[in-house]
Write a structure and sequence with these properties.
six-stranded antiparallel beta sheet; 215 residues; 12% helix; mainly beta; Jelly Rolls; 11 strands; 2 domains; 35% strand; globular; five-stranded antiparallel beta sheet
Length: 215
């Protein structure tokens, strides 16, 4: 996975008590392709080979969140599509775990509406559950850069790879400190080997992940 650019972490939203916001930049150009869903129960008959980028997130507090994607802010407009999965995403079975989806956004939280804007408002996300935000296109030819925004009552963590513990797109000493803090707090986000326990093997697993790096 190529690293995302994290533009803004945990910024207070004006006029919204305790709301938090995360922004990141991505690009679906030349990435892997799949058959895009057109509803929660059916696949598109024409968007059968569309480039996509899957972004794993978790939220710290259960509640209603807004997930937005602007595909117009990069010198050209392309027709994007937004999907959210709960518990995991398998491009070979793109209807499994699908929670919600949107083509053209007509709300008030982006600079414009319609083609080039996608968004979901008041989508309920549960704390410490894995969600996958999939950015893709309306048709097979639609691909390009986008700016995403996720906001809600809790903080939002983006997983670019396990070793990037603080989600800033870089591997450095701050990732070691974040891992140590999570481990000391008994937080299972530090359970690198995914065995349900925090042990010395999680330190070894994290060290290996850090040495391998993030693609």
């Amino acid at each position: 996975m190529k690293p995302l650019t994290i533009a803004c972490l945990l910024a207070a939203l004006a006029g919204t008590a305790h709301a938090q916001q995360l922004e990141y930049l991505g690009d679906t150009t030349g990435l892997e392709r799949f058959n895009r869903p057109t509803s929660l129960s059916s696949l598109s008959s024409f968007a059968t080979d569309v480039a996509y980028e899957a972004v794993e997130i978790e939220v710290s507090q259960t509640g209603q969140y807004t997930i937005l994607s602007d595909q117009t802010n990069f010198g050209f407009l392309w027709d994007g599509y937004l999907l959210v999965y709960e518990g995991g995403f398998d491009p070979a079975s793109p209807l499994d775990n699908l929670l919600d989806l949107n083509d053209d956004y007509f709300g008030s939280m982006l600079p414009g509406t319609g083609v080039g804007y996608s968004g979901l408002e008041d989508i309920t996300l549960t704390a410490d559950v894995l969600y996958v935000v999939v950015h893709t296109g309306f048709s097979n030819e639609d691909q390009g850069p986008y700016q995403a925004q996720i906001s809600g009552p809790g903080s939002v963590r983006v997983f670019t790879c396990f070793a990037d513990m603080n989600g800033d797109g870089q591997l450095n000493i701050f990732d070691f400190l974040e891992f140590q803090n999570l481990f000391d707090a008994g937080d299972l986000d530090a359970d690198c080997d995914d065995d349900g326990e925090l042990t010395l093997f999680d330190f070894l697993c994290f060290q290996n992940a850090f040495d391998i790096g993030c693609e």
